[in-house]
Amino acid sequence: MDCLFCKIAAGEIPSNKIYEDEQVLAFYDIDPQAPVHFLVIPKAHIPSCDALEESEDPVVSHVFTVIARLAKQLGLTGGYRIVNNCGADGGQTVQHLHFHVLGGREMGWPPFAS
């Protein structure tokens, strides 16, 4: 498979890991958009939220448990934003389910003007 995040999860491409277990991997974004910006991905290849099946509910739940734990460990006590881009119009550039976690500054709304 020619998936960037699968290769990162397999250790074929280096990343700045902050957490790893059997189901998920968390690593810092290479182009941070906030003082703290990391991604959490399932190790199993899931193309996007649109491709999720009920059998994958446990790993998605685990992703959010890991996010909460890491946010606390990284001192994001004032809050943080979780972003998932789904599909081309949603801005998804890597076809592997992933969640951006951004914090360390106040987040505006809407996030981007068009």
TrEMBL record:
- Where is the short sequence motif Histidine triad motif located? 96-100
Q: Which Pfam families match?
A: HIT
Give the active-site positions. Answer: H98
**GO MF annotation, one:** catalytic activity
Where does the record place the HIT domain? 4-112
PANTHER family under this entry?
HISTIDINE TRIAD HIT PROTEIN
Task: Identify this protein by name.
Answer: Histidine triad nucleotide-binding protein
The species this protein belongs to is Neobittarella massiliensis
